[in-house]
Predict the structure of Zinc-ribbon 15 domain-containing protein.
Amino acid sequence: MQRRYCRCGKSILVEYRPCGPTWRAVFFRPRLLFRSRVQRCPCCGAALDIDSLS
């Protein structure tokens, strides 16, 4: 699991999962007790893409 950041500065957790012969990035909102899966930044609403996160 890696911590990456959206352009707005919000932290996003990224987990890589096997998907056939390749890997897929799955994004989560960091929480203390549980992780909720997200497809858009919870702060600015931008679509999440592994190449756009820093």
Observations:
- The chain has one domain: 1-54.
- The first strand starts at residue 2 and ends at 5.
- The CA atoms of residues 39 and 51 lie 14 Å apart.
